[in-house]
Amino acid sequence: MSGPGFGDVEDVPEEWKVVSTVRHFSARVITGVTDAVVMPDGEVVDRDYVVHPGSVAVVALDDQERVLLLRQYRHPARRLLWELPAGLRDVEGEPLHLGAARELAEETGHRAGTWHTLVDTFVSPGMSDERTRIFLARDVSPIPAGELDFVRRHEEADMPVVWVSLAEAVRRALGGMIHNSQAVTGILAAYAASADGFASLRPADAPEA
What we know:
Elements: E1 18-26, E2 31-38, E3 44-51, E4 55-60, E5 66-74, E6 79-83, E7 86-88, H1 96-108, E8 110-122, E9 131-142, E10 161-165, H2 166-174, H3 181-193, E11 202-203
Parallel strand pairs: 4-9
Antiparallel strand pairs: 1-2, 2-3, 4-7, 5-6, 5-10, 8-9, 8-11
Helix pairs in contact: 2-3
């Protein structure tokens, strides 16, 4: 019997039977869960994971093909990481591209005139159900100070922002100098998509599969 072929390389929804669920804790953002899952051979095994609301991120490119990066302290990693503007899907019913635009404005003080869906990923599917959509934003411009109506707090209070050429960002990602998964994925995806001038990208409001 032959296995999957080239045409079968597409992720599809699938859900194996769960016979019990234990919720260990619920925090401000995440919930820790153990499901007892029935394997194909009938054995029941525990699978621990984190329930997460999901996230969005933005590769913002200027007219010189520079990408906007910011640096943020990430306590679990014990590192200052260079990242894309990003945030939680924490506004019920908000279209993802509008949430991404809000994060771009709040974290960097910029807005964009052209938006596309760049790439969709599960951030760490072996331990979390978090999915992220990374957008490509172009025609980027600073927001006048008088139009900004939010206050950055905690880790976001003092985040340096830099513009780095896309080619240099790729070099730094492949060289182990940029570690954030959204940043690495978004930078490499944007570099690949630039080959055809971004013509093959999906619209900003493309549905998630």
